[in-house]
Amino acid sequence: MRLFRRRWVSLLGLAILTAFGLLLWFQQSSPALSLQILHASDFEAGIAALEDAVNFSSVLNTLKAEMPNNTLVLSSGDNFIMGPFFSASGDPQLREVLGREGNGRGDIAIMNALGIQAAAWGNHEFDEGTGRIADLFRADEKGYQGARFPYLATNLNFDQDDNLKDLQTADAQRADTIPQRIAHSTIVTVAGQKIGLVGVTTPLLPVIASPGPGVAVLPRQPEDIPGLAATVQPVIDQLTRQGINKIILLSHLQQLGMDIQLAAQLQDVDVIIAGGSHAVLTNDLARVREGDKVLGRYPVWKTSKNKDPIAIVNTGANYRYVGRLLVEFDGQGHLKTGAKANPDYTRLSDAYPTLGPGTIPPSPEVIAITEAIRGVIMAKDGEQYGQAKVFLNGSRRDVRTQETNLGNLTADANLATAQNRDPTVKVSIKNGGGIRDNIGAISGLGGNSGTAGERLPTQANPIANKKMGEISRLDIENSLRFNNSLTLLTLTAQELHQVLEHGVAASDSLSTPGQFPQVAGLAFSFDLEKPVNQRVQSLAIKDSQGQVTDVLVKNGQLQGKPDRTIRIVTLNYLANGGDAYPFPAFIEASPSRVKRVDLVSGDLRPQFDTPGSEQKALADYLQAKFRDTPYSQADLPPEADERIQNLSVRKDTVMRQG
């Protein structure tokens, strides 16, 4: 009898456990789902957005129409950036289309018109501080609608920020119920099924942007991928405990490689929409727009911590592509891959260029906003400061990996401005990440054009009475969008060596670090095969004729007295520790020797004509040197670069005279 009772109890317990398991299975099971994810990041509107944003809207609308009930539209951050497009919204002419004018409001209104449902935080959202963000997020009584979508990040906290703390809201709410709000996660419903959206932002935020002291960023060590995963996973777990079995991570980590590393540390994530790298992924080279380089195939498939497939996607920036990922989920929320995947979905998933419109017209709001902005910024194209008969290379990949002619020109301009103030200044150093666009044009509409991809000087603008090759205020503002002010510092030879080591410390064959330097008054070589902080092999100060006046590093070793001094000019952003440059430590250790002088005083935000700003420096230099005689130094491949010599592609000739 006791044996029978024990067996009966055991069977009853097994039945209860089985029933509970079936209940849990039914809760987590759902019909299969086909999903179209349309995505982009790093919109960062410049002058080209006057056309590209309109075409983006048309292509997006065309793709939406193919799956109207099964589509998400998402952004992985950097929805705007300082510059002429951003500031044009502050002109009263924009009042009619925005309700009330204000810098950046046109960018947000375009995001609304595109139907963005959620966005990750990028670093450029913080360029003008959290007060500007609050102004952009919130609607007002004059008709400005604010952001009609939430911003997401698991690793940011705004409790101590007076501008944004009240915009924080609870996680795991429906996205359409929390516009203008900040959360770690949100939920969207597609074809009756819930999908969790989670955000994560680069831990480099404090050193590459200006979030302010009230914004807490985790982890404290930017390279701590396990620490970053530890901020994301609990938010994912909160969603899966609610029975949500489809999770998309909106990620703005700056480098695609970091997203790939993070994927292996997470579980229950199906898709990572990456941002910040501007990496073009595609399966069809015919889709690639002129001037862009392909980093890999679309999507990148990786495996999660719990051995499930993860699709990682990224698109090129500046409204140049609409990313389109078509996937199927089974009843348990697993991605169908390989032979189980829909072959049409595999074929159609790709980056869709916005060189021309789609088959469905763009949103009228996008047309109205871009046309109003066009009217404001075109007037600036009529202010001419100089001319060039060559294309000035400010492309992201190039200014962050090698010497370019635009990098040289703006570094030279900063040096000239500094020497007018202090003739003892010998060297100019700036970061490539501060150069945001080319000055010039890239010809051709595609691969069938005989001149496709030819790099040309600036094009004529008859409306503004601008001739081909002329460089306008608009060109300068569009390229040097941050308009940093200039700072003079006195460094020792050893410190200058450290600065340049830092400049190439994050470089490798795939990365595009913003800290990569552009220089004047010196030349150096670097070897990426060497360990970090041992990469600079030669470093010499050179005069305006290219003659070596001081050898600082030879064969990787510091030469002469390490404490001899060199007066330099750099950007105040770098002098304050931006891009993790070590200048603040030098200043703190010996303020009287460093003798910091800021050419723009106090907290004044420089305008175009502010003396001591980099835009004013370039305008003045062009007027002085290239008003009548065009700048003619063509951009060269890395094999021919002289100021910054990459020893993986050329021999070291830094010490050559002239």
> CATH H level of the largest domain: which superfamily?
Metallo-dependent phosphatases
What does the overall shape look like?
globular
Main beta sheet, described?
Answer: 7 strands, mixed
Report Rg. 27 Å
Note the beta-strand portion: 15-25%
Secondary-structure class: alpha/beta
- Assembly state: single chain
Total DSSP E strands: 32
Strands in their spatial order, largest beta sheet: 7-4-3-2-1-17-18
What's the CATH C level of the largest domain?
Answer: Alpha Beta
Which regions contain 5 or more consecutive residues with pLDDT less than 50? 1-27, 445-452
CATH A-level architecture of the largest domain:
4-Layer Sandwich
For the termini, the CA-CA separation is: 105 Å
Please give the domain count. Answer: 2
Helix percent reads 25-40%
Total of helices? 19
The whole-number mean of residue pLDDT values reads 93
CATH topology of the largest domain: Purple Acid Phosphatase, chain A, domain 2
Detailed description of the structure:
With 658 residues, this protein is α/β, with parallel strands linked by helices. The protein has two domains: 38-369, Purple Acid Phosphatase, chain A, domain 2, CATH 3.60.21; 393-435 and 482-612 and 635-646, 5'-Nucleotidase, C-terminal domain (5'-nucleotidase,  domain 2). 29% of the residues lie in helices and 21% in strands. It is built from 19 helices and 32 strands. The chain has a seven-stranded mixed sheet. Strands 6-8-9-11-12-16-15 form a seven-stranded mixed sheet, with helices on one face. Strand 15 (300-303) and strand 16 form a beta hairpin.
